[in-house]
Amino acid sequence: MTAVRLGVNALFYLPGEVGGSETYLRETLRALARRPDRPDLVLFTNAENDRVLRAEFPAAEAVPTGIAATSRFARILAEQFQLPRLVRRARLDVLWSPGYTAPAFCACPQVVSVLDMQYKRFPQDVSWLAARAMDVLYPLAARRAVAVAAISEFAKTEAVRFLGVPPEKVTTTLLAADPAFGAAGGPPPPELAGAPYLLCVAHTYPHKNVGLLVRAFSRIAGEIPHRLVLVGKPRFGEPEVAAALKNSPAGRVVRFPGLPWPELIALYRHADWFVFPSLYEGFGLPVLEAMRAGAPVLTTREASIPEIGGDAVRYADGRDEAAFAAALRAALALPAAVRAGQIEAARRRAEEFTWDASAERLWSVLKQVANRK
């Protein structure tokens, strides 16, 4: 039986810059490569990711576009004009675009993934020009694609609402946490030796609500020995976070723009609590990673997060600073047995999410679409 020739539009992928969508792309490709009926992968790369993808997927055929995806305009032009020509030459059975956008015209049927519609709910997360481009490109991709993949039931409802696609066109493919989060690891970074800490992993987009977390922590810092550890890069919400930090206790908030993978896993595993005040998530991968790592989780009931955490995490009102501080205080005061029970329940729940299962759902859709060629 001839393998499906699967093209992957990786033009959106900037290594280390695109957050959960990078994890989604790479983990899905790994899971597809493990399948006995694995596809013949054809990866359409940009200047920033070509070397990374070639190194990780040496069996795949890499087709470089040479475009610098740091230029959004250049990437859009390449996706709409250069990529269709390359797809035609590659003689694909199906093209998968994991990053929201796709060519308007293509020589093979297409599947596009929509991870969320964050910019519609939180327009302050992006520039005005970027939002107008999304207003055109997202619905265009969803309409042109034979099928749409969403990463949660919540993300599916958002795609149906904002992109105008019928629900039957959208398949939900839940994500997963790397099993490495559940394995024994090394110590956290030396900067954190000597005191317990609370952890939040999030770039400072407004919807991530990191400023509220810093203020809530400052309210109770005098009552607890903990430090607050923030991992993430500055984004449009950074001014609010910076203002909150000015009023926080000196030396009690530690920031890392990013960490190597083993150190990040160790940071999760040794956290006294993982605290995630986000107001919008298409999936909420950091919550699942913390659950898998054995860190008890305090988060919000916003968007997709309850789909992930279920009854295995604690929830707080992310729109009320005082209420969030009170919930954090209550979490830190939990009896050891209750805390341990929550950790174990969360770990069991997290293990139910696997990348093989996620890729299986997507692969089923991709094969059906390929057969329509």
Helices and strands in order, then pairings?
Elements lengths: L4 E5 L10 H15 L5 E6 L4 H7 L4 E4 L7 H19 L3 E4 L12 E5 L3 H4 L6 H17 L2 E4 L2 H11 L6 E3 L24 E5 L8 H11 L6 E5 L6 H9 L6 E4 L4 H10 L2 E4 L8 H9 L3 E3 L5 H5 L4 E2 L5 H12 L3 H16 L3 H16 L3
Helix pairs in contact: 1-14, 7-8, 7-12, 10-13
Major beta-sheet overview: 7 strands, parallel
Strand order across the largest sheet:
3-2-1-4-5-6-7
Global shape: globular
Q: How large a portion of the residues is in β-strands, by DSSP E?
A: 5-15%
Number of strands: 13
Helix share of residues?
40-55%
Number of domains: 2
Would you state the CATH class of the largest domain?
A: Alpha Beta
* CATH architecture group name of the largest domain: 3-Layer(aba) Sandwich
Distance between the termini: 17 Å
Question: How many alpha or pi helices?
Answer: 14
Explain what this protein looks like in three dimensions:
With 373 residues, the protein is α/β, with parallel strands linked by helices. It folds into 2 domains: 5-176 and 354-370, Rossmann fold, CATH 3.40.50; 179-351, Rossmann fold (3-Layer(aba) Sandwich). Helix content is 43%, strand content 14%. It has 14 helices and 13 strands. It has helices at residues 20-34, 50-56, 72-90, 118-121, 128-144, 153-163, 210-220, 238-246, 261-270, 285-293, 305-309, 321-332, 336-351, 355-370; strands at 5-9, 40-45, 61-64, 94-97, 110-114, 147-150, 170-172, 197-201, 227-231, 253-256, 273-276, 297-299, 314-315. The strands form 2 sheets. Strands 3-2-1-4-5-6-7 form a 7-stranded parallel beta sheet, with helices on both faces. It has a 6-stranded parallel beta sheet with strand order 10-9-8-11-12-13, sandwiched between helices. Helix 1 crosses helix 14, helix 7 packs across helix 12 and helix 10 (285-293) crosses helix 13. It is globular and about 65 Å long. The chain starts with a strand and ends with a helix. The model has no long low-confidence stretch (mean pLDDT 96).
